[in-house]
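Re: the 151-residue chain
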Amino acid sequence: MEKKLVRILETICGAFLVAMVALLFAQVGTRYILQGSLLWAGEIAVWFFVWITYLGAVILYINKKHIIVDILTTFLPEKVNKTIEMISSVIILIFLLIVFKESIPVVISYSKQTATSIALSKKYLFSSLTVSTGLMILYTIYSFIRKLRRR
């Protein structure tokens, strides 16, 4: 399941990256070749960058590629490490739930505002945090249940 989700997220991030690069090239091209400007292109490119960052964080989380401090756990027995891993999963889940809960009012407050250069609600930008933490919460619960079943 993880591989499928990671593949989907990587595809979305790749599409956003291609769109971001295309928009920036179009913006530069219109500015220097056509002496015009695509004001909205730069802003949407930034939105794509934000989404890539948050979805990329989910990919790293699922693949366990975030930075960890494992100095202590390398010297402890495996049984103790499994207990520490379960406790850290609960702590991570609590943190993610807090971030998720606190991101919802932000999305709601920005839903009434539109982007500077186009008539697009800013909720689409700020919901990136809510979506990414939601995905991490679901994965943490899924991973925690799998670890419990292995015990």
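Residues 2-150 form one domain.
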